[in-house]
């Protein structure tokens, strides 16, 4: 069997999931990997056959989506050429983690694809949303990377095709302890912005992961370049986690029982949806990085214990079920026999 595994490289969550799932698929078949976008700072750990430009959102230094920069940075002619020339018919199974080139190549060429992603969970109206839905973002979640079959991941079992988060092996193998620093992972913000903000809480140490340098020097601030090893060490030993309202990092913090506070990227609807889901679980949410919400952060700093949700280790069983479905001609997303919640 030949498998094409395609993922977005514009978010560390997609890459973290691929690092866990691709080796599992490789036990059963020959796997080629396609990645589009280049914003991820995590090493995949295995060879990539196809590097594509893809589609991406661009953020400003304040952590919000810049619609104009996003519009001008995306190379639409290149995108359509990549869709046209990608040989998806060469594969027995195409697995897509919210990667648009492969999705539309399959759609236009009559190839059945399986979407396995967090975004797939939003095909269900039961997945939490903010009070005000944004219709064009609802369209993006559903149609930026369409597929015939879909399996979604979320914090709770909102629908029959929604499974728990895939917690990568490196995180499962950690033995968490409680240190003095709060881990800060807000990659859409500039390093100067983060350092200046958290320097205003001198009684608490912060370990900030950022790709940009800072001119702010404060005794309570440590800046780290993102890397798998450094991040794993930090999340294992940290006192708490402050991060964006993505999916994988909050899920990992919950799995490790770390106190968690999320700050969704301004204008990023998926993160607003995730924040709504986390708020329902009792996780504090700050809408933007501003001292207007310092009272929430100060209260969070005093937390001694965090919510703990030990998500099950079922990735091998999921991959085996998908392979059986393909080999037996069943619906690729038939996970009715999996008992994981």
Structure commentary:
The protein has 341 residues and is of the alpha/beta class. The protein folds into 2 domains: 2-166 and 313-328, 3-Layer(aba) Sandwich (Rossmann fold), CATH 3.40.50; 169-301, 3-Layer(aba) Sandwich (Rossmann fold), CATH 3.40.50.2000. It is built from 12 helices and 14 strands. The strands form 3 sheets. Strands 3-2-1-6-7-8-9 form a 7-stranded parallel sheet, sandwiched between helices. It has a 5-stranded parallel sheet with strand order 12-11-10-13-14, sandwiched between helices. Strands 4-5 form a two-stranded antiparallel sheet.
Count of helical regions: 12
| Structural classification | alpha/beta
Write down the CATH topology of the largest domain.
Rossmann fold
CATH architecture of the largest domain: 3-Layer(aba) Sandwich
Distance between the termini: 30 Å
Spatially, the strands of the biggest sheet line up as 3-2-1-6-7-8-9
**Percent range of helical residues:** 25-40%
Q: Mean of the pLDDT scores?
A: 91
Largest sheet, in brief, is: 7 strands, parallel
Bulk shape: globular
Give the class-level CATH name of the largest domain: Alpha Beta
User: Domains counted in the coordinates: how many?
Assistant: 2
Work out the radius of gyration.
Answer: 20 Å
Portion of residues in beta strands equals 15-25%
DSSP, total strands: 14
Q: Low-confidence stretches at least 5 residues in length (pLDDT < 50)?
A: none
Order of H and E elements: EHEEEEHHEHEHEEHEHEEHEHEHHH
